[in-house]
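User: Can you help me understand a structure? I only have the sequence.
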Amino acid sequence: MKILYDLIYLEKERHGGISKMWIEYFKKTCKNKSDVTFIGNLRTDNSAMSYLKSVNFCNGKIIIKSDVSNNILSKIFPLNIFNSFLLLFKIPSSVDVFHSTGYTNPLFKPKGLKVVTTIHDMVFWDQKETMKRNISYWDNVWGIYHSLRVSDQIITVSETSKKSIIKHFPWAEKKINVIYHGLAEEFINVEIKTKKEKYFMFIGGRNEYKNYDLLLRAFSLLVKIDPKWKLYVVGENNHSKIAEEKRYAELGISDYVYDYGLVEQEVMINLIQNSTAVVIPSLNEGFNFPLLEAMACGCPVLSSKIPVSREIGESYVSYFDNEEVSLFQLMLNLKNNSVSYDSLARARDYAHTFNWDNSYKKLLEVYNS
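Assistant: Let's start by predicting it. Here is the structure, written out as tokens:
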């Protein structure tokens, strides 16, 4: 079976949950010695792209897109609709299965080609009231709709995301397969530290649906009671850093927030191990890597009551309403009361049940179907 991967999503972001997923799948692809072809412009420092370069693209074939970085087309080249048209001329007739890293699929499906799409979340539909209605937003809305239409099989990463897809597009239900993410090897044998340091932690970007400001408001209440506490923040925020610093000043917490930006996996694990809790204030998620990874590191998790957190976190996570007092009360409780080793160990053991080998096996089953 010959599989073609369009690397378009890896050209749009440097790092994130979706890139994590593709790194793990590409590792399995190389090990499995699959017959693969990749298409992209390859000019990016994305983490998954860097991995592919380090393994010579699994010894597969490479189709290079034109470099338009200094061209007037550079503004439209990343758009799903533009690439959907371009793919009509780029997909070799010898390919059996096409799987894009994003929501880009050929405008019309060539004869004999099977298309698989991974829908990570439905945030552009579920959280549209929080989104800026720019060309990127409408392009992603169209990209998801078109992908659902043209695909033979749909993969999504949680039952919550599946229900959301069906809510908006009930006709797609029979195509949908749920494949959970797994836990990276680095998180498997992490020591549990019961003596935590005085900081809470946020992991991820600052998109509107991440609801980061809720955490800042709740943390500002905690600092007023005890200024010894800190907030450690990890994740890319190149486009929001100035606005965040202004917000810290407004809330009087500038001296209490430590922004680490992007960090190596080893640093991330150490920060999680020693954190009093990882806080997830999101309004919407497709899966929830920080939740799973925190449990694997023996760290308590405080999460908003979104369906996917309840699905993935079950009873191992403490949940709060979408308002700062509810979160503040959980933070205050952890400030005053430690969590038992047994509770942390049970959560860690549960996190270990999410396995990339199982995920990749199910992916192959979708391809073979």
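Now, to help you interpret it: DSSP finds 14 helices and 13 strands in the chain. The domain at 185-351 is CATH 3.40.50.2000 (Rossmann fold). Let me know which part you'd like to focus on.
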